[in-house]
Amino acid sequence: MSKKAGKVKQPEQAISFGPQVKPGELVFGVAHIFASKNDTFIHVTDLTGRETIVRVTGGMKVKTDRDEPSPYAAMLASQDVAARCKELGITALHIKIRAMGGTRRKVFGAGGQAALRALARAGLRIGRIEDVTPIPTDSTRKRGGRRGRRL
């Protein structure tokens, strides 16, 4: 008897990624959105923040440098993130949105709001929304000198 004839095929099991949950139960992740003047980062982690699930930037979705921070690029990045999250079984997200902060801009860029809207429209449930822009309590001197930036 040959070696191949003696083997019995094992039935293939379906491989599922992500946590094992009951139907209808929400599985949360954390979406860290960093919207600067030059780009928009959307980084989804588990609730602890240690395990990266997916990370996409606006620059990965468009060709030209000037389009990286645009709302359109942020929307495309969010759609990719939402598709990957659904694939892995994450159905809801807490949002942590951030600008440059420190001695720089404390208002997030144009892509931040578009990214948040696109995540919500893609069918992911939104939990808490938190602004985590670093605000200095006392810091080094702001750039521009004593008399400020002169135009």
Explain what this protein looks like in three dimensions.
With 151 residues, the protein is an alpha/beta fold. Helix content is 22%, strand content 23%. The protein is built from three helices and five strands. It has helices at residues 3-6, 71-87, 110-121, and strands at 28-35, 40-45, 52-57, 92-98, 125-131. The chain has a five-stranded mixed beta sheet, with helices on one face. A hairpin with a 4-residue loop joins β1 and β2. α2 runs parallel beside α3. The N and C termini lie far apart (90 Å). The model has no long low-confidence stretch (mean pLDDT 91).
Unreliable spans are: none
Compute the average pLDDT. Answer: 91
State the share of residues found in helices, binned by percent: 10-25%
Biggest sheet strand order reads: 3-2-1-4-5
In quaternary terms, these chains amount to: single chain
How many β-strand runs?
5
Summed up, the helix count is: 3
Q: Could you give a short account of the major beta sheet?
A: 5 strands, mixed
Break the fold down into its secondary structure elements and pairings.
Blueprint: H1 3-6, E1 28-35, E2 40-45, E3 52-57, H2 71-87, E4 92-98, H3 110-121, E5 125-131
Parallel strand pairs: 1-4, 4-5
Antiparallel strand pairs: 1-2, 2-3
Helix pairs in contact: 2-3
